[in-house]
Amino acid sequence: MLAGTVSCPDWVIAQEAEKRMKTIFQLADELGIAKDEIIPYGYYMAKVDYQKLYSRIKNNNNGKYIVVTAVTPTPFGEGKSTTTIGLTQGFGKRGKKVSCAIRQPSAGPLMNVKGSAAGGGLSQCIPRTEFSLGFTGDINAVMNAHNLAMVALTARMFHESNYSDEILCKKGLKRLDIDPKRVQMGWVIDFCAQALRKVIIGIGGKKDGIPMESRFDIATSSELMAILSLVKDLKDLRERIGKIVVAYSKSGNPITTEDLEVAGAMTAFMVSAINPNLIQTIEGQPVFVHAAPFANIAIGQSSIIADRIGLKLSEYHITESGFGADIGFEKFWNIKCRISGLKPDAAVIVVTLRALKYHGADRDAPKIIPGNPLPEEYVLKNFKWLEKGLENLFHHVKIVRKAGINPVVCVNKFQIDDIDELEFVKKTCKEVGIPAAVADHYEKGGEGALELVDIIIDVCRNKSQFKFLYDINLPHISKIELIAREIYGADSIEFSPLALEKLKNINSNTDFSDFSICMAKTHLSLSDNPELRGVPKGWQLFIRDILVFTGAKLIVPVVGQINLMPGTASDPNFRRIDIDLKSGKIIGI
Amino acid sequence: MLAGTVSCPDWVIAQEAEKRMKTIFQLADELGIAKDEIIPYGYYMAKVDYQKLYSRIKNNNNGKYIVVTAVTPTPFGEGKSTTTIGLTQGFGKRGKKVSCAIRQPSAGPLMNVKGSAAGGGLSQCIPRTEFSLGFTGDINAVMNAHNLAMVALTARMFHESNYSDEILCKKGLKRLDIDPKRVQMGWVIDFCAQALRKVIIGIGGKKDGIPMESRFDIATSSELMAILSLVKDLKDLRERIGKIVVAYSKSGNPITTEDLEVAGAMTAFMVSAINPNLIQTIEGQPVFVHAAPFANIAIGQSSIIADRIGLKLSEYHITESGFGADIGFEKFWNIKCRISGLKPDAAVIVVTLRALKYHGADRDAPKIIPGNPLPEEYVLKNFKWLEKGLENLFHHVKIVRKAGINPVVCVNKFQIDDIDELEFVKKTCKEVGIPAAVADHYEKGGEGALELVDIIIDVCRNKSQFKFLYDINLPHISKIELIAREIYGADSIEFSPLALEKLKNINSNTDFSDFSICMAKTHLSLSDNPELRGVPKGWQLFIRDILVFTGAKLIVPVVGQINLMPGTASDPNFRRIDIDLKSGKIIGI
């Protein structure tokens, strides 16, 4: 997102473009999807009946698979969604059959500081407001399914405390003897709510549940959302949901959603969510939307299902993985691609002048604070900072190359940017053998991304030598070490006593041996400390806690001070959102 | 709902009927709604663009307005939704242009004991599962809008505790100085979660909010849901939302959503929810669905907007108000009709043999426990209990007559019911001058409701002498007394010290003087004690607490032990809900 750099707000541009939108039926038809393979939500959005569609197209050849990642972003973001959309529009301009897959925005950042994830300027997807706010209900489905597990857990604990084994037996229930000190799951809500990070529940009277500590995370970080990103089909979804460990019994046995007899009902909430959503760019190319953001605290990938469909229907399919290549791309590479079996042909690394200057700045340079304006130091011409900042970019290029994927650098132009500086970045990349283009899709739409498109088309002619960072059957500690050293550049790892104890239990459980690692780490630094810019050296990765997502098959080390529930800032976006009573339209999103 | 009385589960009947559903386009067209006046959600459900539609049809004559209410129900419910749908089908069979308005099921009872509210047997609305589970997202919209207010409140309290007045001023914020002991609003979730009734939040570290007591209510009891039922248009919605008092400052000033600058964003979540939903009965008549159930702890009415549209498009429009005439109908009458200005032509009072026997039973007769089978005492022939139980029915008839509306008794037949007993009830009603019919729509669909339909058509020829129970400008205590004595049959009222103190404050606030009374009372008895059957005599209504919904303009006395967050029972429905992996369909709803 590039908020604040144009005279016309994004939502105004979007509303203008929406007057000329294709109907969803035309959009689907042009992409090769039949009318009875979509479930319209109004005349401009739809869910795609993936099972019906995929069974028809599964023998098509796959198109080229392009993933969009970025350097270590500033708190403003560097326009990765904008680039994904702009690139899609660019391929469209070149007459290529193209689609992209992005993630449904969470109401957390939308109402807080970051705003929507619909792109910006002349590279946006529409209908913007409907997409940004609730959309077709997938995040709500995840939230409700997740919280239903907690309702089942807490109600069961309560009833077991009231009833004898005999009465439980009459009701067809076996005592699970859940340990209130070993509940793994929390509740979720799709907002940034620091006040709910740690709560005590069940403190009413004797009919009001069992007192215990609990927590709320943001809904997009739910294990169910990770499952939605990774799932193959409905059967896979049902099985994975049933394997989610909600808590442990007092004797140490895992209590799953299946034990609570709630896995079927949870899946029922998600039957519709498994179908990817379809909308369009403001230039009329198809945009799949599926799963959710937050590659820092969650998997943060668009879904495998959306990519599978896009690849079968398009010559070029562009997918987005959140934040920098250290977290979003690393998860795309070692988790998502491992499960999907798909091999990307190119990785676009988005970089901005401001991010490079931020990473290359002197030690006493001002901080960038979300909600405050960008300090002018990061706008003024400064080749010294820029050049130094390239270290961060080159580190991300190295990460992409470790995957055997061909990188392409996209220098994402802002209106205020200096041409010489832009060209300097591009030239320096080329000098060290990295294909690069300056892209101006924010201001010019697809037209502004043509140089980038042409380079990508060229790069895609070379086959990738795709390989994983780690063998899935390595000990977990080795997988974590590989990510810490090879990707983040850490010297060593320190575990908290809690994390160490959990790691021992995890290691001894052979059920977990083929689980992937899904780090929860700040996106604002390659390190675990959001203050460290550039390419931090001589630091130790601190693992505070480890979660195990038994349904998603993920080990989730929680590093540094990262929190699965973000906080709402003092000047949040919701202050500026309202309704235009004349048109009935929402303004400010 | 009449679960358990047929060999074939409701959802199987529904799935069969869904094979022959009209498309939403055909359904809308037959009702006189244009294609561009609906927003399809798939091919069989839609939202109706009420503003566009209403502005076109507002000069049409209104059809006859029929409200469906009931005797004091058993915990199983007496088939009010089934009767509403069956009646709609019956009018259809008679060749009348008909529509009905029901409420969107809450996931609370759906996943707990009561199940869906789609009707049952051969009187259902379809698509049943989609309708029952999430539908077009209105309850989620209410939940998110409501919780956003709490996010705004708790984040504001947190930031005010960290920042000086000067820093707040720089951010354009004025210190609100919110009193953590006088927060009025809680959080909401659309489940029955006793463990969340009373919670402590903000107990993490120094970045994790302000410690304070809080609570979660069921989403359908949110003030926002009351507003959705009562609202006239988007402007009215925006204004009402802005008036919601979330908390009080330490100096006693009300803090509204407008003060928190969150009212616009809350409204943004509800822009789509204000449009009523359209589906069909299994015999193809139009069913509007809007707002939510829980007439005990909430207003529990289908919306004014849905009724306004239905009346303009149909000869007969049937609307549903929840539970018995003492609560659902009383709120319909004195709150909803006062705001809408609409005057009902007839009120159908649904009664069942089992409910009458339950109310007329001896003191030592078994209880009816949700989730357990119905004790056979209430099935076996028993004229003594039946006759005694009629007192309850006659009390509800009296309530309806106080409104000046003509009552019609619907003896809702179950397959196991005894014909002599059914005829006895009908005959006894007629003897005392109450039009009555035995209706068998559960087993026979619209055909089974024809006798009832004909009586209603006849009754609607006589003009109602509609009048309110209380003048809106009476002192609140007088309004409450009128409801307690005239409707519930209480001898007197007792206030808790808390309620008394709140009442004083409310009385002294002239802003509240035209607020209606929206009692929160058990639906299982005319009294405030769910154990007291029939027509309890010589009892005192206990008012425990009083809430003020400043946006909905409602004073909400909380009586007896009623709780705004129901609990999940030990044998909840979610145990029996799952996915049929072959068809991809949800089973058990």
Automatic annotation (TrEMBL), chains A, B:
List the InterPro entries: Formate_THF_ligase (IPR000559), Formate_THF_ligase_CS (IPR020628), P-loop_NTPase (IPR027417)
The UniProt entry, under Pfam families, shows:
FTHFS
Catalyses: (6S)-5,6,7,8-tetrahydrofolate + formate + ATP = (6R)-10-formyltetrahydrofolate + ADP + phosphate
Instruction: Identify the pathway.
Output: One-carbon metabolism; tetrahydrofolate interconversion
Entry keyword Nucleotide-binding:
yes
Give, as one word, the top-level EC class: ligase
Signal peptide start and end residues: none
User: What residues does ATP bind to?
Assistant: 74-81
UniProt xrefs under CDD domains = FTHFS (cd00477)
**Keywords for this entry?**
ATP-binding, Ligase, Nucleotide-binding, One-carbon metabolism
Nucleotide-binding is among the record's keywords: yes
Q: Which family does it belong to?
A: Belongs to the formate--tetrahydrofolate ligase family.
Q: What is this protein called?
A: Formate--tetrahydrofolate ligase
To which species is this protein native? Answer: Thermodesulfovibrio aggregans
